[in-house]
Design brief:
The structure is a single chain. By secondary structure, the protein is an alpha+beta fold. Helices cover 34% and strands 18% of the residues. It has three helices and two strands; from the N terminus they run E-H-H-E-H. It has a two-stranded parallel ribbon. The longest helix has 12 residues. The termini are far apart.
C-alpha cells in the first residue's frame, strides 16, 4: 500500500481564503478547482485524483488557531 503524508499548517488557515488556498497547495486539487469552502469539502470527500491508498494528515501550529481572535492580529480563527 502506498501512503501520502501531508502537513496542514493551521496557522495558514485562520481565514476562509487562507484555508481554501492552503488546502489547495497541500492536496493539489484538480485543475478545475474553484476556490470555495463548498468545493474544498466536495473534493476532500472524494480525493479521486490522489493515487495513494492511505492519506496521513498532520495538523501543525494548532496553538495559533486556539488563541482568541483578540490575542493579536495574526491569531485565532476569523471566519
Amino acid at each position: 500500500m502506498t501512503e501520502l503524508n501531508v502537513n496542514v499548517d493551521i496557522s495558514r488557515c485562520l481565514t476562509q481564503n487562507g484555508f481554501v488556498n492552503h488546502l489547495n497547495e497541500v492536496f493539489q486539487f484538480p485543475e478545475n478547482f474553484w476556490p470555495s469552502v463548498a468545493v474544498v469539502d466536495e473534493n476532500m470527500q472524494s480525493l479521486y485524483w490522489i493515487s495513494e491508498n492511505i492519506i496521513n494528515v498532520t495538523l501543525i501550529n494548532m496553538n495559533k488557531a486556539k488563541k482568541k481572535p483578540n490575542d493579536g492580529s495574526n491569531h485565532g480563527l476569523r471566519w
